[in-house]
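Researcher: Structure prediction, please.
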Amino acid sequence: MREAVVNRETLETKIKLQLNLDNPGAKISTGVGFFDHMLNLLAFRAGIGLEVSCQGDLHVDDHHTIEDVGIALGTAFAEAISDKRGINRYGNAAIPMDEALAECALDISGRGFLVFNAQMPQPQIGNFNTEMTEEFFRAFATKAGITLHINLRYGKNTHHIIEAIFKAVGVAISQAIKVNGTEISSTKGLL
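Model: Predicted structure follows.
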């Protein structure tokens, strides 16, 4: 089974995260409603099992909660994907959400890197600071060892933009983690 459990506790957050790359379903509770919604969408589109419980210092703001969940998810992903044997490795998707179109291309390369090109028209959705979208994906990509490119082609509604991004990443992950053999997808023989 490709799964992992991460318990991360700092002075700012207390997180328990369970990830299963082969058994879909989600149960998310971070205290940031819109973020919970986005994580549910990501898990559904990726076809993965994800349980997240986070108690964060939301009396300060949502930064530590969102970034630390990204760190925990990336850490769990790297553990669950293990040596990457047999996976497709690459994934890409262009996902529309009404007037917004977001694209994601990723490589489970072992080299964490983020390219993020998306402007947010509104700074806030509920208690979710929209600039944290980029911070979440940076933390996730870095810890997961994924080269992740996210580009917003166009969009006006911030909710639609962020939803299209999370869905595009989920679909790309679903493609990349599929097992289609026993070899490591690299001419180096190692990822």
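Model: The chain is about 35% helix and 30% strand.
Researcher: Thanks, that helps.
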